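Colleagues,

For the teaching module next term, I've prepared a clean inverse folding example: a structure given as tokens, and then the sequence designed for it. I'd like students to try predicting residues themselves before seeing the answer, so please don't circulate the second half yet.
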């Protein structure tokens, strides 16, 4: 068995070269290519080349919001929050939060008989400035978010809908794609907190790499 001789600093670059090679003649939209490839890289799953869905102009519109700073990314798991690149966030003057362990969220969920993830969306509705919702685990978060949108209580700048699993996962993604909000969604059962973080990072990297190239 022959191992590739790749320096540690070049492993990610080589991984993306392999992804490009294995995609072959499949052409990805240049505007979305880096996001899709980062999902593939994160999960080692080429299904993301065909399951990713983007609302109209969502990438350009999200980058414009991020470029202005002051945005908050709300995740439904600590894992996703941890996976978001803090250096890129700092460069863009952004913030990433997760409310899942907050005592007020736990109390609200208990009182309403809902999941904590759904209650997190209610807390997200109280935030000021542009809010990006990144859901990688709980379909109940997307369902509650759709209700809050319809009630006029929140208007997210972007919803990343990539919960993983079996119960109401597919349905929740379809619901959020019909809610009228900007979205990036992986249809089907696949997703995860790592994929949600990867999409956030891919968006930020597009901006931070542009800034580096201009220097």
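(Answer key — instructors only)
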């Amino acid at each position: 068995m022959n191992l590739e001789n790749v320096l540690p600093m070049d492993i990610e670059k080589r991984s993306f070269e392999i992804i490009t090679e294995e995609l072959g003649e499949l052409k990805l939209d240049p505007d979305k290519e880096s996001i899709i490839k980062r999902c593939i890289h994160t999960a080692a799953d080429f299904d993301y080349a065909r399951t990713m869905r983007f609302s109209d102009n969502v990438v350009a519109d999200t980058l414009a919001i991020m470029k202005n700073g002051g945005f908050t990314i709300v995740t439904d798991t600590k894992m996703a929050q941890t996976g978001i690149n803090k250096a890129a966030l700092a460069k863009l003057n952004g913030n990433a939060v997760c409310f899942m362990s907050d005592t007020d969220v736990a109390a609200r969920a208990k009182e309403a008989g809902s999941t904590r993830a759904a209650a997190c969306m209610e807390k997200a509705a109280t935030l000021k400035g542009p809010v990006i919702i990144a859901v990688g685990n709980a379909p109940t978060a997307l369902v509650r978010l759709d209700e809050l949108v319809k009630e006029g209580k929140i208007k997210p700048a972007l919803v990343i809908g990539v919960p993983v699993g079996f119960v109401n996962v597919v349905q929740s993604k379809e619901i959020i794609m019909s809610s009228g909000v900007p979205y990036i969604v992986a249809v089907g059962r696949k997703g995860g907190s790592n994929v949600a973080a990867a999409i956030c990072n891919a968006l930020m990297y597009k901006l931070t790499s542009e800034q580096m190239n201009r220097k």
